[in-house]
Every structure is written in C-alpha cells, then in structure tokens.
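[job 0412] stage=fold_complex status=start
inputs:
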Amino acid sequence: MASTLLLERHHFLLRRLHSLTGIAPIGVFLCVHLLTNASIVWGLLNKSKAEHGHAGVATFQHEVDFIHSLPFLIIIEVFGLWLPIAFHSILGIYYARSGRANTSRYAYQANWRYTLQRISGYVGVLFVFYHVATLRWGWTFLVPGGTKWSAEAAASTMAMVLQGGDTGLTAAGVVVSLAYMIGVSLLVFHLANGLWTAAITWGLTISVAAQKRWGQVCAALGVGLMLLAWSAVIGFATLDVKEARGTEQMLRSGHAPPPQVAEGAPTGTTSIGGGH
Amino acid sequence: MSQHRVIVVGGGLAGLAASVRVAEAGLPVDLFSLVPVKRSHSVCAQGGINACNEVARQQGYSEYEHFDETIYGGDFLADQHPVLEMANWAPKIIDLLDRMGVPFNRTAEGKRDLRLFGGSLFKRTHFAGATTGQQLIYALDEQTRRYESEGKVTKYEYWEFLWPIIEEGRCVGIVAQDMRTMQVRAFRADAVIMATGGCGLVFGKSTNSIICNGAAAARCYQAGVWYGNPEMIQVHPTAIPGADKLRLMSESARGEGGRVWVPRKPGDTRAPRDIPEAERFYFLEEKYPAYGNIVPRDIATREIFDICVNQGMGVSGENQVYLDLTHKDPEYLTKKLGGILEIYEKFVGVDPRHEPMKIFPAVHYSMGGLWTQFTKGSYNPAEPRPKHKSGSPAPLGAEVGLGMQLGAINNMMTNVKGLYAFGEVNFAYHGANRLGANALLSCIFDGLFCGVSVVNYVRNDAPSKNPASDMPASAFDRVVEQENQKGQRLLATVGQGSADAATNPYIIGKELGDEMTAACTVVRTEPRLEQCLKKLGELKDRYARVRLPDDAPWSNQSFTYARAVGDMLAIADAVALGSKGRKESRGAHYRPDFPDRDDANFMKSSVARFDAATRSTTVAFEPIDASLILPTARTYGKKDVDSGAKKPAMAGAAS
Amino acid sequence: MTTATHLPPHAAEAARIAAANRARAVPGRKVYVKVLRCDGPGKPSRWETFQVTVERGSNVISMLQQIAASPVTADGRKTTPVVWDSGCLEEVCGACTMVINGKVRQSCSCLIDDYAPAEGDTITLEPMSKFPVVRDLWVDRSRLFHNLKRVKAWVPIDGTYSLGSGPTESPESQEQRYVMSTCMSCGCCLEACPQFNIEPDQSAWDTSFVGAHAINQARLFNEHETGKRLKAERLDALMSAGGINDCGNAQNCAKVCPKLIPLTESIGVIGRAVTIRAVAKFFSGR
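[job 0412] stage=fold_complex status=done
writing structure:
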C-alpha cells in the first residue's frame, strides 16, 4: 500500500526515469558492450593485431584490458549499471503488469511491437541476470562445463562458456548459445523499439510521418546492433578455443604489457567490458 | 440556500442549454435522458445554424429578415412574436457557441464562414463541417459536464420519463424509470422542462434516432398537456433509403451546389454520367428559377414526390431521384461536406463525389408539439418604437425583449403550470414548415431565453411559497403506483404465451409506422385519413391485447419499447386528426382535396386535447399572433415548367 | 481529411475487402448471427445463434431488429430479444459500439454484405469487454465520460450571457480541431487498447489509464484560445497516475477509431506538453 502511494506520488518522475534509464545508461551501455563483444569478429580486420595470432581474440582482449584499466570500476558498475538495470527492470515489470496483450484480435504491427516489448523485457531481465550471475558473480554451476570467465583470457573463456567447454560445441553449448542469441536479440529489439516509443513519450515525434521516420532510424539502429550482437555470439560460439588460448598466451608473455587491473577489483573476475 | 430543484427531461441541445442556464442561476438541476446526453439526437443535425451576421447585414439582411423568412417559410402558422425574439437572439447564440469552442468553419482571416441554406438568398448559416449539430451538442455537453463536476447538475442517464406529477394545478415532479434496474421512482421538482425532441418513430423509419419515439411528449399529452399543430410533420426531401432507418442527406448538399435531377426519359437505364445535360430534367431549377435547388423543404419534397409517384420519372422507375455533386471539385466537397458524404459512402458503398446520390424524402422533424404560451415583447409595428432615453431608437436586432418578454414566467410553459416544453417538443417557432438550420437555433434559444422564465417561476411564483419538497408524499406515491401497475400489466402478458402477428409489439409498431407514412406525410386526402384513423383504432385494439416476449426484471428493452408503442399510438391519433381537421394546404401539410391555403379559417393553431376518461382526442383551431407580418402567397417565385417528357396519362391530382 | 481517396492505409485496406465482399453478396440469403449474451452483471455469459435473412444494405442493427421481433434461435428455441444500445444509426452518436467478428466498431455502419457475404456465413457479436455488461450487448460506459472530467474537457467560459464572439481561428487550426472534436465517445479506442482494462472498482478510476479519447480531448481544449486557461490543470492530471505515461504506444486506438482521429498524434502532442511542463515546473516551481 505504502509503496503504491509512493509510486503514485512520484508517478511522473518515476515513469520518465524509467524511460530515461532505458536510454542512458542502459541503452548506451548495450551499444558499447555489443560493439566491444563483436570485436571478436570485426577485430579480424585489425591487421596490426594479427601478429599475435587470432586478430579478433587480440582485439577483444585489448578492449577488455582497456575497460579493466578504468578507475573505480566497481563504483561505475554498481551505480552506472546494476542499479539502473534493477530500477528499469523492477519498474518495467510493475508497469507491464497493467497491460493485457490483445494481438490475437488486433494484429497490427505496432501492437505486436507493444507485446514484444513486454515479452522482451521479461525475458531480458532473466537473461541479463543469468549473464551477470554466471560471468560476473561466478555462479559457474549454471554454466555447462563449469567454465569461469576470466578477464585475462577473455575470448577463450567466453568461447568455453558458450560452447559448453573447450572440446568444441557441445549439446549444452548449443542451448547456451541459442539462449544468448535469443536473449541479445530481444534486448536489441527492446532498445530499438524503446527508443521509438520514448520519442513519442517525450514528445519528440508527434505526427504520424515523424513517427514513421524516427521508426526507420530506430529500425536501422536495431539492425546494426542486431548484426553486432549476432556476430559476437556466433563469433564466440564458433571460436577455436585452443587458438584463442595461444593468442592470449602470446599477448601475456609477448610484446604487450600485462594488463593494469583496477584497485580493489579482484583479478580475473571483474569485467564490465568482456563477456557480460 | 434554496431547496428548490428543477428537472430537465431530455439531454439534447434544448435540454442541455436549459440545464446550463438554470444551473448557472443557482438552481440545482436533475437532468434525465434515455441515453448518455452526448448521444442525443441533436448529434444528427448536419447543415448548420442560422443567424444574421455582419456580412449578410451589409448586404441588406437583418434579424428582421431572418424573422420574416422563418414566418414565410413556416407559411404564416407560427405565433410571430416568439419567432422575432429568436431571430434577434440568433447572433448572440452564435457568439456564445463560438466562445464555448465550437469549431465553426473559418474564412482565411479566421472569421466564421457562412453558407447558403434553403429559404434564403443570403448566406446566414454558420456551420462546423457537416456535423454542426454534433459539434454544438458537444459544446453544451462539455459545459454541462463542467457544472456536473461542480455538483450543480445531476445526470440521470438511461432513465426514462414516465409521467408528470401534477398536483394543485401545477407540475411538481416526474416519475421515471431506470432502464437498467427497472426501478420506478418519483422525483420532486418545482419546475419540469420537457426537452424530449420529435416523434419520428411514429412514422416507422425516419431520419430520427431510435430514441425519438415521442413517448415522453405523448405521456404529457395524455396527462393533460395540449398538443399544438400535430399534423405539421416535416418530410425532408433528401434522405438515403435504408433497411433500419432513412439517413439524412443534409440540405447543405444542395446549399453547396448539389443539383436534383431525373432523366427526361422515364426508366432511362443509362448510367447517370452517360446521360447528356440536355436529357436531364433539373426540375427544381426549371420550376423555381430564383431559388432553384434550395427551395424550402416542403416544396422540394413535394416536387420530388410528384416526379416519382405521380409522373413515374424516378430513377430506374423507383422512388428515387439524383442529387448530383459530381460537377464540384472533390477536394472542395470533402472540405465542406466530408461528414455527410462519408455517411452516404459508408451506408451505400458508393462515392458521391464521383457518382450522383440516389435520394428520396423521409420524415424528419415535427414542427408541432406540446402547446406552449408566451408573453409578447415590446415590439408593435403599429406604434412608434419605444425610444431609448437618449431619444434615438435602439437598433432593432440588438434589443432584448422585443418579441418575447424576457423572464416572463409563461414563456414556453404548457397549459400545465410549471411544465415547460423546449426545443423540438414544443410547437412554437416553425409554423407549418421549418427552415433548414433553424432547429438548432430554436432549441438553444429556448434553453437560454426561456430558462430564465423557469428560474423566475420557481423563485417568484407558486413554488416559492409551497416548494415541491414540502408536499405530502402521497401525491408522488400515487403516480409511482399508477406506473407500476401499467408496467405489471404489460409484463404479465409474457406468461400468456407467444405473441402472434396481431399482438406482437414490434409488428404493431411497424404497422403503425407504415400506415402513418402512407397516410400522413407528403400527400393527405380525406378518404386516406379516414382509413388511417380506422387502422389506428384497430392497432389500439390489438395493443390492448399486446404480448411481450420478455419479462426480465432487469434492462428489459422489449418492455420499454412495448410501453412506448402505446404512447406513440396516442400521438398518431393527434397527427391524423389534425391532418383531417385542417382542410387546407399549408407548408408541410398538403391536401390535394384542399390545395389552397385558407387563411380565413385555418391561419390558426390546431390544438389537440386528450380526454383521459374516454381516451379520445379532439382537435380545435385557435387563433394565432400574426400581428407583425401579413400573410402573402408563399410561392418562392415558382414558374410553370413542362418537363419535356410525355406525362403519363394517369398523372395524379398533385401537380 | 477523411475520404476514400485520403484514407490511411489500414482503413483503405479494410474498405477494399469490404467492397470486394459486397460485390459478391447475394440479397435474400440466410446468415447466422452468433451473439454472446448475458442476463446482467455477475450472470454467466452464453452464446446464442440466430438465423436471419439479409437484404441489400442490411446492417447489424436491422438483423437485431429482426431478432427482436421474432426471438427464436437457429435451433428453434424460443428466447428473449437481444438487448443492445443504439441511437442515431448514422455513426455519429457512438451508442451502438460492439465487438463484431472479434473487432470493435459501430454496429449501425456494419453492413452484413461486408462481413458475411455468402449463404450460411456467421457473424459474431460480443459486448465490449472493457466495460461492465448491463445486459447482452449493452455495456455501461460511465467511466469513459468520467475520464473527460479528469482532463477538464471544456472551455472555461464566463457564463452563458452573450459577451461578443469567441477568438478568431485560422482555417488550418479549425480543420485540425474539428477532426479531434468529432470524437463521439464510442470507446473503440479503449476497447482496443491493451493498457485500458476493465476496472470494476470505481475508486480506482481516477488512477487507472485515462484512455486515448480523453488525451485527445485535452489536446483539443489546450489548442483553443480560451480552453488554454486550463492547460496546466489538464497536463497535471495527465502527469499523474493513469495519465499519459500509462500509454504503451500500441497505437491500436488510431487504427480502430471510426472517425479517423489522429489519436497517436494527440498522444505525442500531450507527451511533448507534459515534458515541457515538467521541465518548467522543475526550474520555476510552477
């Protein structure tokens, strides 16, 4: 009861914060995160990294190292990510409960997106939780093969998480990879469609034509992010773990300096850049 | 504060205008309506609302001209003073509606746009797209809602008026029934305003809404209220024939340039666009060169009826003529007439921008209604005009109280004290024929102008000494008991087995409509009216044996309908007897056996009175106030024109 | 503008299908009308099927009238006439709204030829689901009107005395306001809205979603010179619980609106207005 009143009293602020957190930091983070992770694929174009072996693995490791070099990483993580995500998720679920999907009767495209926005929200929350719990909090019992992701061997351990071990893609690995595929796809949709609705909510797009134009922009962004997301998942799911390990070893022992780890962050378990 | 209350029955334009006016004066209002007030029949008015305006004024038009046109259009049957007051108030009413936010169409400069309408050579009709009535009632609905949210108006929606409570010679309340719970109860009030509209359903299919059965007026009539000019029923010349109703095609279609024609060759099977100009008979334009297609409704109706029924020249040999807008720019049409063209397109499935519409006349409006009184204003053309103390006369149209005395308690009061009738349900203003776009005006005018009379009556007359709230309950309980008994009698018939065709209320209602349409609309003859009265007698007998299909104690619509059929029969009687008694032709009332207007004997109101003891109707003709404009022949400059087609040998009496 | 030539794509498509059905419909055929009936609040619902004869131009209303005059089901069982709400039968009063073949619309403008063109076809009628059923197809839409009070959908004039003309207005503005003002409170937008759901508890009406129709009315009056005076109050109402933020942008409202009112546009306009108001309030405190 008290919580309902609180929600009603600050109704507008909370609604708009919900919308805002979806765009920044969460939406912005998702873009950066997908771009980073997709480096397992686009890194192959990075000729300068090829000398260490797999250029994608090297580029990805480089990106992870950069993120881990950021100061006060845990603070950034908690306040910049985990709390906003928790806020967005909890309120989102609360708000979504007020709706009753009716696509069976009104099968219009925008109505499907409305429904999918809510489904993607629910699934997205589960997926993000699984993702963070297994890779960041070390709940390895949820990972087939029990792989613990490591920031120093970012690409190889990530590939093992998706593949279910280091012996190539297992059946369980297929399940995990597919879950990732679905999870990231829904999150990308959630962001792109959320951007479209936010523009109406905030009053940026008004006319049908403006909403259509902005919809095309959002769709283009969604397609771009989707390509990044899929390339990352496929990239890791098909990565040769042994080759990746070799590259990572070469990076650690070779020309590249060892990564600087932020103070207070236990080595090998903290990352916001890689694999989440 | 005062314990006085006022009841308004009916939530259309008249009812809402009255509610707002009375509530504003500080008297709490109880507003009763069969439907949520926003859905009242006023929404169906399409064309516009008349008022003198600056553009017309500077071309020689004035409020007095508007008054003159209304009297002339009504064929000199209306009491003249109230009409003068209404015409004088029209510009004020437009201003008020404008302030309420009605989206009147605009000129480039942002002023209110005007259109030409039947019965005038001046543009004096204000309009909001093609749904002016809808827009006006929404504006009043919004203001009523505002007062409702402030607690000044209480709405009783889905409540049906059953009977007025008349005690000590005045109306002190009503009995009404909740159409959902079927609860019957009395409501006390110091004045009751009937604003219940017309009675189109008495004619079966009409342009009226399904709620316009005239039952409320009929109940007042049976309770002793007189009914004026019942025979004056307007048949609109242009309606779209349909299975469930006849949908109006607004006069504005003609006002915006629509042309009425039939092929010169009867039964011509060619598509309309393949018929060359020379082979089209624009009969209104040829017969009435001055007014052309915008002759008043009764004339247009009769001419269309004559072309189809008597001359057999209807399109495809059926009762229909073309109403053609295809020569106009479709964009322009959409802008000016979008709403009504949409109706045609929606219900017929043909785009009237590209193919002429097929139309035929349909019952549309009742000029007649509950008999009402008024107190003459100060204007008397025989005497010098009263002068302002400065010595110069006030400008005629701007002065209040010239036609009717503002606030006189009997303005639009029926013969029953404290029982008022506003809008279409009264018989004032429109005489024998209503001009297009005058109905919205008369409804709002009644509410605003005569609302003041109601307030004065409550504050200064009988109710101030003996308010209804202090009266003994027995008077109210008695009428509740009477209505409960009526209801129980009807409901008890369900147990007597299924109705056959003779006792089915829906079939009785349909036969009533068919008979009234055939005998009492465009053409009325003595023998046909005699036959009609016989048929009504038969229907009344059958109604006494009516059997209902449903005795549900909850939301029983067939019960509501069946009860109304009994009241519709009473109104039908008055219409038929009025038609029979008026042995002349005037306005909408056309008697081929008496083709001329007879001012000596019939420039009088027919007043129907109901005798409760014998349940019979008598009609008397009573003098009217015709002191301002002398009657002249109402020809609209008609010329005799031959259609160019060979007239069928059996061409009827009506020419 | 709302004409056949200017119809938005979804309406043009519907019109095309309807016209094609109409072209092949045979007058005098028999079709079935399947009605979801209910004797009153709290009573169970049941389906009843009737057989009716269809003539050219028959609509759902004329079918229901046929049933009322002779209330016998298709399997010959005697029953009571079906109860429904109707008024103008011209699609300007909004009364006869119901769910036909699964979609909400007015029953008067629903031609049987468009929906059941062949002998033996079935057309289904259900009451609107977002409002409490009174009986059969008749529902109680009081909440819809109540919500108009929440957004103060009126012009606050000084009273009904004549005080000169209203503000001037450009033809463009009039055209825009006119379309918005043709809203007949039928409730189609609410029936199709996934965010507007039945609320039996009247005390919760003020905090549950107000609906597209009310948001549109708020815009209509905000855009009137005098109506503007209440703009702040209207926006405050729409910024509170059940206001504009409860819109989920499914946009069904604009798809089912029989008057083709640009409801989603109105939602965008009010969205912008509340954003500006929130910022202004934050900085100016008013």
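[job 0412] summary: The mean pLDDT of chain A is 89.
[job 0412] exit 0
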